[in-house]
Predict the 3D structure of the following.
Amino acid sequence: MTLAQFIHCLDTYGADFRRWPDQDRAAGERLRDTSPEARQRWEAAHRLDELFALDRASAADRSRESVITDAALRRIRNVPTRKSLDWRWLFRPPMGAALGATLAAGLIAGFYAGPVLHRSAQEMGPLAVTALLDGEEELL
Amino acid sequence: MTEDSDEALMRGIAAGEERALRALAARHLERMRRLARKTLGSEAEADDVAQEALIRVWTHAASWRPERARLSTWLYTIVWRLCVDRLRALRTVPLEHAMQAEDPKPGALETLTRAGDLSRLAAAMRALQPRQRAALTLFYYEEMNGPDAAQVLGLSLRAFWSLLHRARQSVQQHMTSLSPGQP
């Protein structure tokens, strides 16, 4: 292993050789033990690892965890359940019957009124339709 | 008293047992918060993310498959995605400034003997990209292995190692530039 490879591994996996890839571990340890520069680099990496560990240990604040959990549970209790979000009630009596009747009435109205409206539009011609859309009733 | 396994807790949560969610939070919330705090750089934001993550756990507990991912990996993935959502929302203000916002509450770090080193580390971490912070946190703080950490961040293993390498190098460079002996 070259010093450059050693430094690359240190900069990725840190100073703990257990985190290094299997194939690099033994060579890395050998280089650290034989090369003063590798040793110096390893010690610097080890200091940073220690700092990570210290940061990790010092920042724990267990008291906030129960507060967060309580807040989450309060929100969970207030969230509507899936049952209340179910739209199937629309299709059950009496809403289902009402909805069905409305749909049927709409279809019937469309069936009888549609052709009449279509004929009227044809009789009026494109100009009349444009005028209607523009709201100029005097053209009629 | 025997502790429930992660699988048993998740079954309980899926069945609507609040006790199971509390037990899961007692076991995992600290680490979930740490990832959010390190990624977002704010205690308050981390608390919000942790709370939201617990709600997602509650609503999606049935979708977790132990054979597909460890529970910790699944939880970190939820937290990371929530962090990404927050970071996207923050883009209405310059992201660098949002990322460097100081937490108003003084931490316990300042009371430690190595407060100087730790505050330099905190400054160096703040200077990183959020994804780099997350990579460092998962690998060095949470001691996740590379494949699991890559899965959380949605990266290939190769991309994760590259990200981790750049992140650690950046921290070292920042720490050096911030050290008292430097001009």
